[in-house]
Amino acid sequence: MRVGSIAVVVPLTLFWTGPCREGEAVSAAGRDLFVTHCAACHGSDATGNGPRAGSLATPPADLTRLGEKYGMPLPVDTLSAFIDGRGDTHAGREMPAFGEHFFAGEPDDPRHEQARRVAIALILDYLETLQQPPASP
Known about the structure:
50% of the residues lie in helices and 0% in strands. By secondary structure, the protein is an all-alpha fold.
């Protein structure tokens, strides 16, 4: 499961220097990472209706509404910390700490830390493309 993600993410670390806004390959990489690591709970459409959603004590968030909650563009630092989950951002939550999940077993390798950051940035970039307009009052 992680091997496919590593194959996509590690080459991208060689040229990625900021927010990913262009290129079908980058968008596809973000979508692939989302499907592999997030869709089981959040659903393939990111609305929180994944196959594991019913078994969770807290329903997964509708990730297509992050823009309503946080504003646009999405706050990369805030959401990256939440997805990464290392530290105290996941206290009492069922969501895995993906900072530990990505490239587990080799935490001290700086290339893997960069790859973690890139993977999370790619997922966030993909999620930004899924944002729905604010609901009418």
